[in-house]
Structures are given as C-alpha cells and as structure tokens.
Fold these 4 entries.
Entry 1:
Amino acid sequence: MKTRYVLPVSPFACRALLTLSLSGLAFTALGQVTPTTPVYPLPAPTNPDSVALGTTDPQQFATPSVVGMGPSKGLIFHYERVPRFNVTSAGQTVGLRDYNTDATKNARLVIKGYIPMLNHPHLKLILGVNYEREEFQFSNRPTGYELYDNIENKGLKTLGTQLAVIRPVNAVNWYIFRVKGELSGDYTSSELNVTDYLRVSSEFLYGWKRSPTFSWGVGVQLGYTFGRFSPYPALLYNRTFNKHWGIEALFPARVTARYNASPRSLFFAGYSVDGLNYIVKLRTPLQREGATLNSLELRETEVKFRARWEREIYDFLWFGVEGGYRYNYAFDAFDRTNDNRIKIIDSKLANAPYASLELFIVPPRKLLKRQ
C-alpha cells in the first residue's frame, strides 16, 4: 500500500511562504554590518529550531554565531527514510500482550520557515513555523496488535509555531529566549481539539562572545527531547579553530564537528537526540485492567550518529544530504488519562541506518556583496 503526503496548503500559500522567507532573509542581511574581514557563508544559528540569527559586528553586539558556520536557513524542505527494521512490544499491564513484527516503512517529511519580525542590532524577533509528518507501515497488516494497528498508515503530524527573542546585550554578552507551541498527534482537520494535542516547549540561554570565532553559553530547556516533558540543562559551545575546522554544540541535545571544504561546501559529523510526543486517538478502544482507553500518549526518543554534507546549488538555493545510524531509546505508549502517566506498552525499535535529503533557501550571495 502506497502512501502519499498531502500538505494542507494551497499553491498560493506556498508562493506566499517562499516570498516571505526570501524577503525576510534579505531584510536580515541588509540590516547587518559587514565584518572587518568579509566571510561567506555568513554565520548561522546553532539550531534553526532554537535560534535563527544573522551576523552582527562582534565589536558592537554579541551573538552566538561564529565565523565559518553555514548559511542561515529561511525555508527548509526535509525528507527522511529508515529501511525495514524489527519492532518488539511488551504489555506492562494486565490485559495487554507482547508482540513482535517488522516495520516496512518509517518516513518523515519536515517543512520549516523562519521570518524576522524585528531586526535591530540590539534586539531581534524571529517567527518560525513548521509542519512535520511521520508514517509507519508494518508487515502482515493488520497486525492485530492495538498499538501498531492504531498508528498504521495514519500520519502522526506536528504543526507548530515559535517565537525566538535574541537580545545582544553588549559586545560580549547575549541571551536568547524561545517559546514554541505544537499540535502533535494523529488528528485531522475535522476532529482537531487543541487542548488534547497542544504541546509547549521553551528555552533560555545566556552567553559570552569571546571573539568572532568563539561563543559559548549556558541555560535550560523545557520540552520533550528526552521523552517526557521535563527541564534539562543546556550548554552552547560554538568555536572555529581555523579556516577548515570548527565545532557547533548544544549539549546534551546535539554535538557536531564541522569541516569547511570551501565557502560553498561544508561537511558535518556528530550526534543528535530527537524526542517526539504524539497523542493517538484509538480506532478501537483499548481494554486494560477493567478500564477503557480511547487515546494513548506515544513517546519516541532516538539518538542519531550522523554525517552530513551541505552544498550550494545556485546562489540562494542549497541542498543537504545526511546519513547515519539511528539508536532507538524509547517508543512507549502511556495512559494519558492518568496523572502518573503510567506506561502501558514498552516498545523497542531495532537500531537501523537512515538517510535524508534536504533543500533550503539562504540569503542570496549577490545581495550580501552589496553591503
């Protein structure tokens, strides 16, 4: 059975988003000050989900970006696929059985866009939007197992928006605050209940810009990266050691080594921790210990060891190719109606290789040269 991705947007909306992204990128670029030694690509944010920064003169206002980082991304199209792998589940309460099968498909489609709302040297506001869709297919359909049959070919969606506040304090200090709201689950437009599917995350980082090639900061993140909703510390470390080598990290969520082969070609290697949280409405209610469940909370956490290549195609258009190995930490279902969030199904996705392809839009080089 083949599955088609259908995005709830019209051609006019797509053209509008593309125009706003290009306009926003141009606005950001024109409002910046050229460094003493011009460098292209311009420094980009450590993580587009967390920050979307341009470059400012380090002599005047500090930012987390450092010389040598890749180009700022305004509009991103990302597709990821994992080949066939084994899945095992163990029931944790009376009435639920164990099961073992193969997942024949696990794919993700991600579209993100970032638009600057305010671009002053001492204050920047960045608006971000994202749409994500994850799909599973299992062998021997229907499997007869409650969890798998309820996510089979359903489309686990995430629709979100975020606001990032970037505040350069002076030539050394900076801080970032970000808040993000997402609707995550198997909802459709006809049955969407915001209170059921809403997930909110946030973060705060305070840092020091020691030089144009070294910036670091500390803070806290509050979200679902490690499964359940919880706070965890964050350490940002961006450093360029020479014209080729650098490191970009937001520990413990991600650490990446960077190699600048040329201004138009960059290589990366490292790891990242990805956490997803979905609300799944059951087609058939689940019976456990005399109780009836109509929905589940599905927590998915994985660690990816990855290598990536980013390359300019033409001026404002780049592509990224990524591959690596996915280690699944958790794929568990919880009773969301219980205050204690009791785990009712403990699942394990077998570790497997993965690959992804990405296209993204950056500030046009010709525009940057006019600064």
Entry 2:
Amino acid sequence: MLGKFFTVDAPFLLLSIRGEDEAADDEYRAVVRFAGLDTTDVHRISLTQQPLGAVDLSEWSGIILGGGPYNVSDAPESKSATQLRVESELLDLIGRIVDADYPFLGCCYGVGTLGTVIGAVIDRTYPEPVGGMAITVTEAGRGDPLFADLPDVFDAYGGHKEAAATLPTDAVCLATSPQCPVQAFRVKRNVYATQFHPELDLDGIDVRLDAYKNHGYFAPESAEQLKIEARQWNVQHPHAILRRFIERYARRR
C-alpha cells in the first residue's frame, strides 16, 4: 500500500472522460494512490458531467488526462454531443499546454488528443486488445526522466482502438510494443502521453473489464477469461512513471 510522501502547494488536476461512475472513481483512486498523494492534492473534473470551464495553468502543479471510451478518430457523425464538447474543450486546452510546455500526462486518450494537436496521424492501424502487453523503452526513453532506470522491457495494462500511426519529427517516441509502435511520447520537455495505462493495476483492470464489456473492445462473454489472462502479467513498473511525473512537477511544501 503506497502512502503520501509529500504535500504540494498547488494540486494536480485530473481530467476524466469516463461516464461510468465505478470506472471513473477507480481511476481517481489509482492516480492518487500511485502518485503518493491524497485527495486534497488531486482535484478531479468529470468532463462527461460538466464543462471544463476556464483553466488557469498557474493554479496547478500539472494536468493528468485519464482514458476512456472516446476516440478522436471516430467519425464526427457518430460522436455524441457530449463527446464533441469534451474533445473541443480538451484540444483547446492541450494546445495551450503545448504552447506553454506545461506539465501534462495523458493516459491512453492522451495519445489521441495530444497527437491531434501536434499533427500526429491518429487512426485505427495499431489497436491492442484489453489486457497485458510488453512495453519496450526506446533509446530516447532511456534518457527521459520519467522512463530512465525502468527495465528495457516491462509489463503494462492497456487496450485501445486508436493509436498514433506516425509522430511529427519534433515529438520524441519514448516506448513501443510489438503491436503498437508508439506507446509513449514527449513533446518539448514537459508534455507526455502514454498509450498504456500507468495508473492501472490488476484490481483496476477487473473494474474496467466490467465497465466496458459492451463498448466494443472485446466480446462481452470473454470478460471473465480476460481477467484470468490479466493475472499472467507482472505489472509493477508503469506506476513509477506516474509517480515520477508527480515528483518532477509537484510544487512542494
């Protein structure tokens, strides 16, 4: 069980796109736990329930964007009014974040949104099934403060329909996998996105398999088998990425 290891002067902002309460609450608890903070240090805005509103970047230590069922590459006519609003708000905010080189960590959906802002090709060429995956740190990743000292190859949990097929030349690929060439990347010095979920552990993937069994990621009847298969992976290192993000950017007391 991880505990709080320092207090911050400015909290982190977690943006959630999950409309399913159990999955959204589990994501929030996981971010708090693996960050080594408590709920006073991580403020959540549930974008499916309320507009983003004005965000003053100076009020936060950094911003974390969670994952969820949205895909920026979905056909516009298939997107709900809520998804269209959320994407518009996020793309505008992430544009400001990139311009300011402001601390940002986008988990899964962050690849699609940040990738769209910087001109990456986001499509469905490289999907991955829900479950465990082997992540390989690139040579550039070896020198990155969030990925340095991690094993060359480590297990993670994920699952996605879209991904970055190509990155612009000014983005740095930090990690890859056999089925998805861009598992993590950095823009400028402080703006990050991961395709895998650095906040996800075994209990969390069980919650999400239940929450998203009818969202087209997998056959609903296979959920219990996927839970069994998830137990074959030793997922411990991705959480260090989240914690290092917090350690690097927290304004501490």
Entry 3:
Amino acid sequence: MKIASFNVNGINGRLSVLLRWLEEARPDVVCLQELKAPDGRFPIGAIAKAGYGAIWHGQKSWNGVAILARGAEPIETRRGLPGDPEDNQSRYIEAVIDGTLIACLYLPNGNPAPGPRFAYKMRWFQRLTDYAAELLALDVPIILAGDYNVMPTELDVYKPERWVDDALFRPDVREAFRGLAEQGWTDALRTLHPGERIYTFWDYLRNAWGRNAGLRLDHFLLNPLVAQRLIAADVDRDVRGWEKASDHAPVWIELSVSTKPTRRRLRSARPGPDRHELSIIRS
C-alpha cells in the first residue's frame, strides 16, 4: 500500500502536475494540502477520471485539504480539528481507507513570530497533540500525514543558523513536534533515512531548487500498528522541477500488507447531530 502526501499549492492552477504525477506514481492514497479553492471548485471530475475517489474540505484562496483513494471512496470520519468550534480554517480532514484511519493536515505557518499568527499555530499544534492522544487510544491503524510547517531537526533545513527565529524552526515549535511524536508516533521518513538531508520544499525565490536549499516540512507520523508495516519512504523530488510545479514535492510511504484480521469500532467525530459509528476492518 503506497500512501502519499502532497502540498499542491493551488489544485486548479497545478492540476496538470497533479494528474501527471498520479499517473506516473500511482499511489493508493493521497493527502493533499493547500488546495486554495472553495468546495465547489474542487476538480472532482478530473480526479475521478484519473481513477480516484475523493473527499475534500476547501476554502477560498487559502488552505484546503483533501484525501484521494485509487479505485475507492474514502469514508469521511472527521472534518476540522476538534478543540475550537470557532476555527473555520480548512486544515484537517480524516477518513477510513482499506481499514486504516488516515488524517490529512495542514498546520499553520505561524510567521511572523512572535505575533497572533504564531500564537494560532501553537494553539493548533496543541489541539492536534490532544486529539492525537485520543486517536492512539483507539488501537487501530492510524496515519497523520501532511504539511506540518516545521523542520524537526537541523538535518531538515539547509542552513539551520538562518532559521532560528522563524516560526517553522523556533525551539518551541520543534519541541511541540517532538512532544507529539513522543506520544508513540513514528516519523516515517526520518526512521528509514536517519542521517540523510532530505527535503520536501524548495522556495521559488533565490534559486532555492537549483541550489538544493530545501526544508523538510511534510511528514508522516505512524501509530505502532502502522509503523511495524513500514517498508519504504521517500520524496518524489523530481516533481519539484516540473513546469508549473508546486514549491513542495510529493512525499510517500509504502506499507506491507497486514495479515492479522481485526475488527474495531470507530466513532465519527463529525460535528452535528449525525454522529455515527464506522467499522474498521483489517484483512
């Protein structure tokens, strides 16, 4: 099972890039961030023609997240991160696909720091950490994938000394990521490439792509039931060099097939009166 995460930086403006990559890479599941499109402008026709079912949570001009599944329809279990009913930014969506609970997230950038945007980022991080602890208690396969807007270590940034005051690299942001991971989540890419400088983002400015002046912002956190099945993880970095490319490249993991059948009950946290239970079946 191949699962990818891709900050497309505008799904309609870069649809040709997304469709080309889907055809070449053929991931089973894709988490998309930064759609920059309201729900009504999500290109579901083109996505479906490419062979993917989809759920999405859009927003005009900014943010937006989606989950695609090849040859299947994702079963939505949550839309929006819990903890603040007044937060209307489209940054979190979650679904069950083939017995695995997959969360797609787009954590706030937070710049300039300090300031209101940074404060919002840290509150959002804390809400994610609180909810992630609840998810771990479910004892089902879970993946938290997306653009976290944090470089966890100095290996994840081309010149660490230039980023110490940035909201993506401040000590309190890295500590928040570390605290989240230490709940029991495995950083997939770093686990399989422990000493390598691997980037997922290259700015459009100052020839960052040409100089390989990158950042690792896009991460997969896996709970123990998924981590034991991890067999590969990498970045399709060449996509960043395509015409009309996003400033991010797709990141992906590959999981072995689970052979131990289990059945769990998962309660949807979708807001409103239509709360319901879904069966997660691993086969």
Entry 4:
Amino acid sequence: MLAAWLKNHFQSVWRCCFSACMLPALALLARVLSSDLGPNPLALLLHTTGRSALVLLTATLAITPLRRWLTNLSAYTHQRYGKRLSDWNWLVRLRRLLGLSCFAYALAHAWIFAAFDLGYDWSAALSEVQEKPYVLAGLLALLILAPLAATSTQSMVRRLGRHWRRLHRLSYAAAVLGLLHFWWLTKPGLISPWPDTAALTLLLGYRAALYSGLLERWDGFDGKESLVRPT
C-alpha cells in the first residue's frame, strides 16, 4: 500500500522534499559559479527566489486539504490503509519544512533587492515602499512570514496553544500579498502568474466552502492537527 509505505519511509520522503525545496537555490548557485545568469542577472535572482517562495507557501497551505483528499481517495478506492486522517498525519510534519523553506527564499528575495537594487539605501527603500505598490505588498508578506517562521517549532506550538492556529491563518494573507506582488511585477501579455493564481484560488475557495458550511468539516480542517506531534 502506497500510503503505508510513505508513512514507514517518512525520512526518505522528508529528504526528497528537502531536496526539492533546495533545487531552485542549487540551480541558481550553479549558474552563479558558471557565470551564466543571462543578460539580466538581478531579474533572474529576484524572479527565482520570489517565485520559489510563493510556490512553497502555496504547497504549505495545501497540506491540510491534501490530507483530507487523500483520505477520501483511499476510502473511495477501498484501500486497506489510508482511510483515516491519522494515516496521513506524517504530511503535517512536512509543513514546517515547506514553510521555513518559503521564508528562506522570501528573505533571500528581499536581501537581493535591498543589496543589489537599492544598495542598502534605506531612504530610497522608504521611497520605493511609498511609491510602488508591489514593493509594499512584498514587504507586508515578508513581515507576516517572519513571525510564522519564528513560531513554527513544537515548543512554540505548545506555548501558544489555540492562538497558534489564529496566527498561522495569516499565511493566507501572506500568499495573497505575494501573489499581488507577482502580478504587479509581471509585464502585460505574460501568463506566468496564472498557475499560482489558480492554485491559490482553489485553496481559498475550498477553505471558504468549509467555513461557510457548503462542504462538510472534519476534525483538523482548521489546522488543529498541528497542535499534536504526528506519528
């Protein structure tokens, strides 16, 4: 059974997930070392780090619904293992990895902009925030992600209790701001933000349907499963 195999080989799954998170950074490093950053190196660095952060944030938000969907799929296909939500608890342990990787790329994105575009000119940075909406949206997204990353440990989950869930619901706001940042930076005629928009719209629509009662809720649909270390 695939579900049972994945659970029993969680360390291998975690390593594969970690490697996937590292791929954009490693690809950039390889291009830096080979002096192959193209005609606009700054644009490439900013786009890769920013897009990676948005993709990883969307993947983080998908963990809770994915757990439910896989449970339903296992039940529908009459699998012997995987029909209970607890059979997929190991997925929750990947969320922290995805979230921290997202924050790392977002931080790298902000650092590259501050260092190579602004030259650490903070007066110019303030002017950019005031005059360009996409800079403000990106800054707000980063400011939201910072406390989420700082409170991602098990000790902080236990310390904050139910307030942890309330705080981490802000991840949806960070995703929306990140997507707006991406759209405002995209030149007319390009469709690159559309896949991210479709994925986030699906996740937001699904959660709205749960909270409105259009879809049946389940124990843990609001992230409650995060309060207990999964086995």
